[in-house]
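STRUCTURE:
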């Protein structure tokens, strides 16, 4: 039997009284992530998430946990890259307050948008650079070839410098 993929949680249906808590293990489908104008695809059909919901005196407190692996282009050389991350995110939503720090953007009228929260939490959990390998050398600035596993002598180009700086070089000679 296939499990359904949940993205919205009706908090009222949990029927939590003040001081009570609930733990939910739910599969969610994470949409592709856009980072640096590149698309990164989460591995697998659905991610198994664990969400803890507690009911303090006036609102909700949430904790979301899951692991993910994404695949896409290396940010230096554009070769295929994959990265794994563990997500552990927390949110609060306090009723009857104007303090933005106490209001969750993922809660609207007793509904928690788990899909949107998981998407944002996944992006924050990823490293700032997604690389094919830790020592990725990137691309040659002259010919555009990958510098990974390349012979350094193959990339000693006699370009005469960057033509965009030619006028400045003329000024320097005077």
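SEQUENCE:
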């Amino acid at each position: 039997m296939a499990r359904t993929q949940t993205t919205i949680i009706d908090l009222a249906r949990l029927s939590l009284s003040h001081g009570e808590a609930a733990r939910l293990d739910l599969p969610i489908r994470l949409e592709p992530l856009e980072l640096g104008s590149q698309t990164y695809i989460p591995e697998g059909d659905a991610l198994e998430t664990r969400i803890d919901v507690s009911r303090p005196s006036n609102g909700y407190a949430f904790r979301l946990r899951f692991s993910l692996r994404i695949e896409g282009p290396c940010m230096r050389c554009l070769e295929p890259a994959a990265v794994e991350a563990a997500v552990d995110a927390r949110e609060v939503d306090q009723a009857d307050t104007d303090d933005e720090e106490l209001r969750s953007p993922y809660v609207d009228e007793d509904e928690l948008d788990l899909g949107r929260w998981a998407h944002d939490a996944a992006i924050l959990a990823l490293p700032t650079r997604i690389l094919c390998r830790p020592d990725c050398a990137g691309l040659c600035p002259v010919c555009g070839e990958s510098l990974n596993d390349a012979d350094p002598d193959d990339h000693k180009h006699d370009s005469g410098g960057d033509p965009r700086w030619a006028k400045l070089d003329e000024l320097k000679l005077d």
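REMARK: The beta strands are 8-10, 21-28, 33-35, 38-42, 47-54, 59-73, 80-94, 107-108, 111-113.
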